[in-house]
Amino acid sequence: MSAITPDLIAEHGLSPDEYQTVLDILGREPNITELGVFSVMWSEHCSYKSSRIWLKTLPTEGPQVIQGPGENAGVVDIGDGQAVVFKIESHNHPSFIEPYQGAATGVGGIMRDVFTMGARPIANLNALRFGDPAHPKTRHLVGGVVAGIGGYGNCMGVPTVGGEVNFHPAYNGNCLVNAMTVGLATTDKIFYSKASGIGNPVVYVGSKTGRDGIHGATMASAEFSEEAEAKRPTVQVGDPFTEKLLLEACLELMATDAIVSIQDMGAAGLTSSSVEMADKGGVGIRLHLDRVPMREDGMTPYELMLSESQERMLMVLKPGREDEARGIFEKWELDFAVIGEITDTGLLELTWAGEPEASIPVAPLVEASPVYERPWVPTEPPDAPAIASPDGPIAPALRRLMGSPDMASRRWIWEQYDYYIRGETLQVPGGDAAVVRVPDSNKALAMSVDCTPRYCLADPERGGMQAVAECWRNLVATGARPLALTNNMNFGNPEKPAIMGQFVGAIQGMRAAALALEFPVVSGNVSLYNETDGAAILPTPVIGGVGLLSDSTKMMSLAFKGDGRAVIALGGDGSTDLSESLYAREILGSESGPAPAVDLAQERAAGELVLALIEGGLIDACHDVSDGGIAAALAEMALAGDVGWRADPALQSEGASFYFNEAQGRYLVATADPGPVLERAQQAGIAAIRLGETGGNALHFGPNDAISLESLRGTHEAWLPDYMAG
Amino acid sequence: MKSAIILFPGTNREKDMADALRRAGGAEPAMVWHRETTLPPVDLIVAPGGFSYGDYLRCGAMAGNSPIMRAVAERAKAGVHVLGVCNGFQILTEVGLLPGALMRNAGLKFICKTTPLRIENSDTAFTHLCPPDRPMMTPVAHNEGAYVADPETLDRLEGEGRVVFRYADENGAVTEAANINGSQRNIAGVINDAGTVLGMMPHPENATAPHLAGVDGLPLFRSLVERLS
Fold first, then answer.
1. Is A242 on the interface with B (CB under 8 A)?
2. Is residue B120 flagged as an active site residue?
């Protein structure tokens, strides 16, 4: 047996203080298996030791919430005895090292989190960040990540319906791959991880355990260096076919009442799943590791406990139901093994051929996991003058913007995802939010993922607020009532006070917005240490939101539906500052200045107005205003409907500040009957500006300032395929 | 019309297919697990889309050796109609019920998009209600959809009117640019010489409701219901 040396302890990512706590808990020196268990359980990835005290400040409750954070995924009531189950999760480090498998297993992991709860996954989304397009690694990462997401989701038969992609040099050394899954369950058939029933069998199902992914959780808890490539063996390899079988087998078994509790084996594999189940139930758990289905001979208890082989589940069954369960898993040609039992000892006991290999008290292992209030300094809001309106026509700038990496069409990406499968996709990628119908009903779920990292860098609090508000707005724009959100906090090294300050600021902004919009947090994931050689990513708190359309026939979309509609801008605080706008960055080359302010009361009021307009059938197109301002929103509505637009004469002298500012809380709506819309807006105290009228096949901003839809479409569609072909 | 949908491990478009058969007025389809060796009495057997056995070997090769496929082949020989879509088409070529094979897309990427198909033969049990004068807008979703066969087979298929669908542009013109996956002669679907077994890569089942990708796929299923009921 290896001696536990200070080097070995450090290699396991445990600080001297943390190791002392291990000694106190055990009352003796750990063996290597025990050291491994402590190491992964107390890794940042599993313990949330830097983030936990801040995450606790987020609002997590509401009448619609059935299960908030702390389980595999959040659960929200959607009426009629049905619930939506969803979560977002990162797979950043593995995707940078091995983009196809890293992204694929990220998608596989988040789907497992959702079906572990008893839900059938009905939609996938993803939020991706890549480095500078000119960086030599970027093209390879984009191609691999997209193929990996598609490869896994397509095979699983779950439509990938939405997402977002940004490019920025700050991600050169750390791409971000955040995957979200939305599932559907019945409220009386939600499954939890809490183990119970002394003597109940602990069952292992799914794939065999191999040596892949050992220390994946530890890798996700440290900065990268140039030697990142050497970590390739810690990346797991996905098998979506096996996961598809696992999904069907689990749902088949869940239709019976044989399961007491169930937990997927994700990060830290067998260790984290068994410890979490035992801890939640306040029980002990004994695992006979020699009974674990193994892919290769000679695996040690240490390797078995730390492997992150994919497509595995641990469950506690009711006594005597093993054969029934085994029959289902054998039908689906999956491994099934009774590997242990629930005990009353409060210990995690590991044995091999009857010989003890490890014994750790569960409660201290979980409760004594370190929690740090890391030092942090607030981000100083930039003190830069507002960016004034440059002279010049709108159309050429719009054309450049629509063909820029952050605004160009993502068709090249989403055409590699099967977004039709299951036959319920009402709104395909390219709109504000994806919309998926609830089968055999008139209900539908809208879903969106959003974050604007450049705002978060300038002002983390405003950025966190804006991410929540934009996600909420995207759901509202389809006519959905927003229900709840899941968050994926992607940041740099939390041991640096400035980075920790970004994290704290973002949380504070998210908290304010979630409270004001009654949009609680029901699940989430934190990815820290996204730094390479000391350079951090932009702070990227991604928000994934879900909303409910009780009548899917009233769903709204962004496409102009025909000629002769008035186009009206609703909401906003009248600000025309171009600071931190995409226009400022792409056209003026400026990344300075304050992020746009978010007036949460106005945001809420504008959203309620839009929901009422949609409900009342008063508008026939709606789009939120975000990157690229009003001009980009107009362009997207026109391209989607293949219908042009002409500015009202009163607006024909407006310049770039008007068309490209990114003031928050705004929507563009189109209506054949503007009177009632303007009247409702006035009653609600929401600013309303008539912009012009739909028609023709071009966008006309003024005399000699127009662009044809054909030209705009060409530029918008060309960038990404051209880039990837290069 | 009674139908059976064959389920292999990794099949994933059975729901879409069952929805389409119901929408067209067919009876509730029977779901038949691949390990079965017999089929219920049905008018139509469907091999739906998916990734049978993960498609880790050649697509459809494993499924082609499933016990149920012997029963399917017997029924097909006896004249029962068989529809294979996407992975189902791949499987039907593997067991020899249809000629040719499906290879990796020319662009080496998975393709999901709604695509115009020209209906080349509207005188089959599968297509007699499909309007032949305009393209049928049909989603595709595949990675291995490039149809290949030797030139003699292709000539024979064309000569006998057995090429049922081709990838076309929005005006119905069969062009190289419209050939999304590099299929030989833009072939998207073929039928056997008896006119009873149809295989196609696109998914008409995903175009059977106005809220989905349109309704252009519905006449195909209505054709079957009308002819086989």
1. yes
2. no
CA distance A527 to A456: 16
pLDDT, tens only, A353-391: 999 999 999 999 998 888 999 999 999 988 878 887 778
d(CA A578, CA A87): 34
d(Cα B143, Cα B59) in Å, to the nearest integer?
A: 10
Residue with tokens 């029977």: B30
How far away is chain B from the Cα of A154, in angstroms, using its nearest Cα? 8
Q: Which residue has the tokens 């919309």?
A: A435
State whether residue A333 sits within 8 Å of chain B by CB. yes
Range(s) of the domain holding residue B67: 3-228
B36/chain A closest Cα distance in angstroms: 12
Q: Which residues of A are catalytic?
A: 45, 91
Q: Is the ipTM, as predicted for this complex, more than 0.90?
A: yes
* B113 chain-A contacts, CB cut-off 8 A: 415
Contacts of A426 in chain B (CB under 8 A): 211-212
- A112 has a chain B CB within 8 A of its CB: no
Report pLDDT for A267: 80
Per the structure, the count of domains in chain B is 1
Q: Give per-residue pLDDT as tens, A532-542.
A: 999 999 999 99
Distance, CA of A460 to CA of A517 (rounded, Å): 19
**What is the length of chain A?**
726
Q: What are the b/e assignments for A373-408, b being 16+ CB within 10 Å?
A: ebebeebeeeeeeebebeeebbbebbbebbbbbbbb
The region, left, alpha or beta by phi > 0 then psi within -120 to 50, assigned to residue A574 is left
> ∠ at Cα A128 (A602, B145), nearest 5°?
125
CATH code where residue B131 lies: 3.40.50.880
Instruction: For residue B9, give the nearest of A332, A416, A437 by CB distance.
Output: A332
What is each CA distance from A393 to A589, A632, A653, in whole angstroms? 18, 14, 10
**Among B86, B94, B130, B142, the one annotated catalytic:** B86
